[in-house]
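Memo to structure team: turn this sequence into structure tokens by end of day. - J.P.
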Amino acid sequence: MINPIKIQVRFSDLDVMGHVNNSVYLSYFEMARVALFSPLMGTDWNWQKNGVVLRKNEIEYFSPVLLHQEPEISIYTKNIGNKSFVLEYDLYVNEKLFTTGSSVLVCYDSINKTSINVPDKMRQVLEGLKRNDN
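Reply from structure team:
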């Protein structure tokens, strides 16, 4: 398992009610994906040739995150297909689950503008991120 990714809540993340705006969670999930994939795939990974595009997001909110809280996001692989995979996110504050989400990502060659099969190295990384209870 990978350590949770820590997120810093910025004042600009808040809405008029003083909690993190619902749309900002998508940015948090994106930051967590980048923080996860960068070290796992390595600095020489060609993201243009072997990248991913986002197809779908789902989020379920349980408790609002406030300015001075310190959320942490854990990422797990739910499913790996031929050309796509599903990531799940658990956002905790002080070990309490505040939000869950998922993303469908499609492997994509942005040079040739076409979907591709999940590269072997990426598949291995994703396999290592499956929940223990899957």
